[in-house]
C-alpha cells in the first residue's frame, strides 16, 4: 500500500490532477519503459559467443523460483547441469545477465586471486545497496567502506578473541537438552529448537546475556528474526531498483530492522554507563572503540588497530550487532536442522558419532571447551558433509572493475553480477561421487586433502567469505556434542525421506525436522 500511495502522491505532486487520456498515456509509457528496461540486456553476451539458458520474458531463468514451483536447491542443481561441461555462461536473474562460473579454478580466481575486481556482493543492485534504509552492516557495504569496516570488526569475530566461546555456548546447549528431555511424547521440533538455540548463542557470545529463548519457547527476537525479509520487497527492489530508490522502499522489513536497531542501541547505552569491558563481542568492540586493546607490536597490525578505533563509532557497533541477528540466526538454524535430520536418518553414522562423543564424555562430561571440540574428528566430518548437502544454493559478487574472462576477449563490465553455484559444485559427481549420498568419510583426513579447491564452499571463500564461520562451527559442534551425549535421534512419521526442500524458503527441509 505504502508504495502505491507513494507513487500516486508523487504523480499528483509532479503533474497535478490528470485527465483520463493523460492517465492512459502515462500508464502506456510506463509499461513500455518497464518492458524496454527489462529486456534490453537479453542476448548481449550471446553475440560474443557465450552460452546462455534462454531467458523467459520478465523472469529470465528464475521462473520456477519466483512462482515457487521448485525449491532453491534442486532448482540450482538443475541450472548447473544445463551448463553442461562449459566453464562459464550467462544466467538471467530476471532482467540482468549474470556471469555463471562453473569451473573451480575460475571460482578461485574470482573469489581470491582477482578479488580486487569483485569486492562487492551482488545480491542487490548498487543503487539500492547504498540507500541509508538498506544499510545494515557489513553485508550491504561496498568498496573501500567495506574493506575498512571488515578490517575493523574482524577481531570481534575471531575465536582468538573470544577464548571462552565454547564455555559460553554450553549454557544454551544444556537448555536444548532440557527442552528435549521435557518433551512429553519424545517428539521434538528440532528446527524450532535449533533456531531458539541460535538466538540464545548470540545472547551469550555477543552480549553475555541469557535471552531465555529456549526456556520460554520463543520470544520477540524470534518473531522479528522470522520477519526480517519480505519476499515482495526483495523482488520489487532488485527488479526495479530505480523505483525502489525513488520511493525509499527498503529490502528489509523496516519494523523488524528498527526492532533490532533499537535493541542493540539500548544494550550499548546501558553498557556505556558502566566503566568496564565484559568478555564478549560487544565488550571487545567497545575496547576497540576506546583504544583499550593491548598494543600490537607489528607495524601493520598496529596501523589496522588505529584505523579500527577510528571506525568503531557507536553507530558502527550497533550496526555490527544487528549483523549477528541478520546472519547468525537463519543460517545456523538451517544447518543444524540439516545435521540432525541427516544423522537421524543414517543410524550407522549416528552410532559412530555417539561412540566418539561417549569417549569424550568420559573425559570432560558436560563442560566441553573449544579445545576439546577440536578432538572430535568424526563429528567434524559429519558437520562438513552436512554442510555440503545443506549449503546455500549460491553466492554472488558484483564486478567492481572491468575483467576479461581468462583465455577470451569477453570483457565483463562494471556492475555485472557473478554467480558462484555453491550447491551445483557440491552436487557435481566429478568432485563428490554419488553426491546424493550422505557420507561423512568424504571429509576423513586422507580424503579431505583430495577435495579440489573451489568445489567446497559452504561459507564462501576469499576476503569476502563468511566472517562468522568459526562462531557458526563452534555453535554447531557444541550442540551436536550435547545432543548425542544424551539422546539417540530417530525420524518420526512426519519425517519426509529422502530429503526434500521447501519451495517457500531458501534452505529449509520439507516436512520439518520433527525427530
Ligand atoms: C551455518 C551458518 C552459516 C553459513 C552456512 C554462512 C554462510 C555464509 C556465506 C556462504 C556467505 C557468503 C560468502 C561468500 O560469498 O564468499 C556468508 C557471508 C557472511 N556471513 Fe555467514 N554463514 C553462517 C553463519 C554466520 C554467522 C553466525 C555470522 C555472524 C555472526 C555470519 C556473518 C556473515 C557476514 C557478516 C557475511 C558477509 C561478510 C562480508 O560482507 O564481508 N555468518 N555467510
Q: What is the string of helix and strand elements?
A: HHHHEEHEHHHHHHHHHHHHHHHEEEEHHH
Please tell me the overall pLDDT. 88
Number of strands: 7
Strand order of the largest sheet: 1-2-7-4-3
Structural class: mainly alpha
Radius of gyration from CA coordinates:
24 Å
Largest β-sheet summary: 5 strands, mixed
Low-confidence stretches: none
User: Could you tell me the strand content as a percent range?
Assistant: 5-15%
CATH superfamily descriptor of the domain at 135-383 and 466-488: Cytochrome P450
Net shape: globular
| CATH fold label of the domain at 135-383 and 466-488 | Cytochrome p450
Percent helix, as a range, is 40-55%
| Straight-line N-to-C gap | 41 Å
Bound molecules: protoporphyrin IX containing FE
InterPro entries: Cyt_P450 (IPR001128), Cyt_P450_CS (IPR017972), Cyt_P450_E_grp-I (IPR002401), Cyt_P450_sf (IPR036396), Insect_CytP450_Detox (IPR050476)
GO cellular component, one term: endoplasmic reticulum membrane
Cofactor: heme
Protein name: Cytochrome P450 CYP3024A1
